Amino acid sequence: MSCSFPFGCCCMLVLLICALGSFLALDHIDILGDSARKELNNMVFFVFNPALVSSNLAQTITSENIISLWFMPLNILLTYIVGSFLGWEINKITKSPQHLKGLVMGLCAAGNLGSLPFVLVPAICREKGSPFGAPESCHKYAMAYVSLSMAIGAIYLWSIVYNTVRVSSTMINEVINVNNANFDEETSKALQEQIDCEFDSECSSATDHANESSLPCAKNDKQGKVLILDTIKKQLYSFFRSSNLKAIIAPSTTAAIVGFIIGLVPPVQKLLIGANAPLHVIQDSALLLGEAAVPIIMLTVGGNLLKGLRGPGVQLSLVLGIIAVRSVVLPLIGVLVIKGAIHLGFVHADPLYQFVLLLHYALPPAINIGTITQLFGSGQSECAVILLWTYSVSSVTLTLWSTFFMWLVA
């Protein structure tokens, strides 16, 4: 695609594919209904995204270039930390509903480090008069930077944002369950007494001892130690259940680790990467699967958008706050951070690398957040509407910021 403003054109491309998803989700078309979107999201989560992350990371990240890119994971983490804080402030100011608090923080924290940079940065390399050198060299390094960005972003997204949205969704479900439970006072007291004496098998014998008449649940030292150990075991079990470690080690996170191993271990890389590699068909298969991730995510977001337009609206102040964070505040903070890092010698002098670091702060929210809300069944309609407006605005703001960033690094 050739365009005088590649960033604006690519944002419009995202909107067009989302519009197609909305069309396919119409009742009289019914190709992309609720059940179909849910199954597609599961496929994206377990198959397409991991394939996209591992295949691109494996063929572009090497032991030679990984050392010079050490600041990139820290830079992306800073965008998540600052964005989460700003999202928390928006929740306080707008008094957003409980089930949207985690979503708002996630939308402010996580930028689209996957689909957009994969389209945008190589597009700039192909443009005539690109400030980043020869197209072939620019494209090679661009893919390395973008692949690492996507891999690190996937780890942060499926650990930080996934669990932030999960906690928010779980809290609202627990409130609903508590409101639906109608226990009277006597039943509550009876339950409490049952819990208090859960391990008390000797309450009846305790009444035979006059000096222990005030201690109906007396325990000897050995029994006390057993009780303490049982309590610790239960608390540890409860912690690991609530931590949802399976979600932290998400498929995309595991795929990123696999991609790093393939790229950084030369014998494994020679076995899988390149036209002459004995097992190159495995890498080719992963690349083919990964290419399906971006359009499928956009289609499902478009389907969710149709549901969101039919459902309850979103607070205007909430939408404006998220747009202000992603399109104005974070890019300004990013300029200060990257300029400071360059001054301190943390970032090397490659203009393309500096441009990608700056771009992390100006991207619209990650489309995968729509997949996360779909998995939890909470906030998907609101998320789709917010994504629509943020991407509509980004078609203008991202073009302006990218032009400024190119001038800044040149």
UniProtKB/TrEMBL annotation:
Main localisation: endoplasmic reticulum
Membrane topology: Multi-pass membrane protein
Endoplasmic reticulum listed as a keyword: yes
Pfam families found in the cross-reference section: Mem_trans
Transmembrane segments: 67-88, 100-121, 141-162, 247-266, 286-306, 318-346, 352-372, 384-409
Domain of life: Eukaryota
Membership in a protein family: Belongs to the auxin efflux carrier (TC 2.A.69.2) family.
Entry protein name: Protein PIN-LIKES 3 isoform X1
UniProt source species: Coffea arabica
